[in-house]
Write a structure and sequence with these properties.
Layout lengths: L3 E5 L4 H12 L3 E6 L10 E5 L5 H8 L4 E4 L9 H21 L4 E5 L24 H18 L6 E4 L2 E2 L7 H9 L4 E4 L9 E2 H13 L2 H4 L2 E4 L7 H12 L5 E4 L1 H14 L6 H6 L9 H7 L7 H14 L22 H4 L5
Parallel strand pairs: 1-2, 1-4, 2-3, 4-5, 5-6, 6-10, 7-9, 8-11
Helix pairs in contact: 1-6, 2-3, 3-4, 5-8, 8-12
Length: 347
């Protein structure tokens, strides 16, 4: 028999995939987001509401068996909005779920809580060391989760790496656009760092596993990511090869390039945020053995599988390739390239 499940952030990339999967599995699904969604999959409903609106949450959570909390602000948001949505919103969601006696709340966090860890693969026990407004908000939201778990709530916390799949835009749209136009693509330094990512279908599978796991198993913190991954140069080159123009990944001197990009970030002329810059200079991957052993998590997509399937979706989408005009308010938006768009002439 199906469950009654509420998904916050249901208009976002992850939330929309979760709604579709859970409805297809026979559950009664209510999506909740500040944006409307149309059309909806069979078996799903949607309500427009803010996760900081306690009264709206109380109505949505009444009679729910589970809540999947995937709503959050992206790093592109102003710092005050990041904290309000991610921290205050999480507190509101958990307060309402506790009042409605929801049996299980799955909180979608991020490996960003580790900051720029010196230990790879990074285990769940690694201390939270946030370095920017986004990672600080994610870390603070986890502290709130721990408080509610201590009061008896079954509250799994999932920490996925950057995930890709149909619908993903963001900075990846810049790589896809340049590849499609027949341009080379730059990387910092040699591009030989190993950056782990994650396929959307595997992330949805992991959430479903957590939803159905026994409480004593689910009620934990889990890293989630691809099991197979290589260097950022190899992953980006795979996209350029798929584009078929014979272009290559081009190395840029790391320190001068970072200095330029940091300057552009401060002036608002580049969408690349500081933590991402430094993350691309060192290996970045996490230990997923806990999820494998306890949840039965078995990711099917490698980094290249995930990035190539996303590029295939991007290339074949009805509106066709186009230059971004948005600012990255959601993962579904292509980010405005700013001064980086002008650099295309050199590649």
């Amino acid at each position: 028999m199906g469950l009654r499940i509420v998904v916050t952030g249901a208009a976002g990339m992850l939330g929309s995939h979760l709604v579709a999967r859970l409805a297809a599995d026979g559950h009664e699904v209510l999506g909740l987001d500040v944006r409307d969604v149309s059309p909806l999959p069979d078996g799903a409903r949607h309500t427009v509401a803010d996760i900081r609106d306690g009264a709206a949450l109380a109505r949505a959570f009444a009679g729910a068996d589970a809540v999947i909390h995937s709503a959050a602000a992206l790093p592109s948001y102003p710092a005050d909005q990041i904290r309000s949505i991610t921290v205050d919103g999480t507190r509101s969601v958990l307060t309402a779920a506790e009042a409605a006696r929801v049996a299980r709340v799955i909180h979608i966090s991020s490996t960003a809580v580790y900051g720029l860890p010196k230990l790879v693969p990074t285990p769940e026990e690694y201390p939270r060391t946030p370095v920017d407004p986004y990672s600080r908000a994610k870390a603070e939201a986890e502290v709130i989760c721990e408080q509610f778990r201590a009061r008896g709530m079954c509250l799994p916390v999932l920490r996925p790496k950057t995930f890709l799949g149909p619908g993903r835009m963001g900075l990846f749209s810049m790589l896809f656009e340049w590849a499609d136009e027949g341009r080379n693509f730059p990387v910092l330094g040699k591009g030989d760092v190993r950056i782990q990512m994650f396929g959307m279908a595997d992330l949805v599978d992991a959430v479903v596993l957590t939803l159905h796991a026994p409480p004593e198993t689910a009620n934990d913190v889990y890293n989630l990511a691809a099991a197979e991954f290589g260097t950022i140069r190899a992953d980006f080159q795979a996209v350029l090869d798929a584009a078929g123009h014979g272009k290559r990944v081009v190395s840029l001197p790391a320190k001068p390039t970072v200095a330029v990009l940091r300057g552009l970030e401060r002036t608002g002329l580049s969408p690349v945020y500081g933590r991402l810059l430094y993350k691309l200079l060192d290996d970045s991957y996490v230990d997923i053995s806990r999820a494998r052993e306890r949840l039965g998590f078995a990711p099917h997509q490698s980094n290249q599988d995930a990035i190539l399937s996303t590029y295939e979706w991007w290339h074949s989408r009805p509106q066709g390739p186009s230059t971004a005009t948005r600012t990255g308010r959601t993962s579904r938006d292509a980010w405005r390239q700013g001064a980086l768009g002008l650099a295309k002439v050199f590649f």
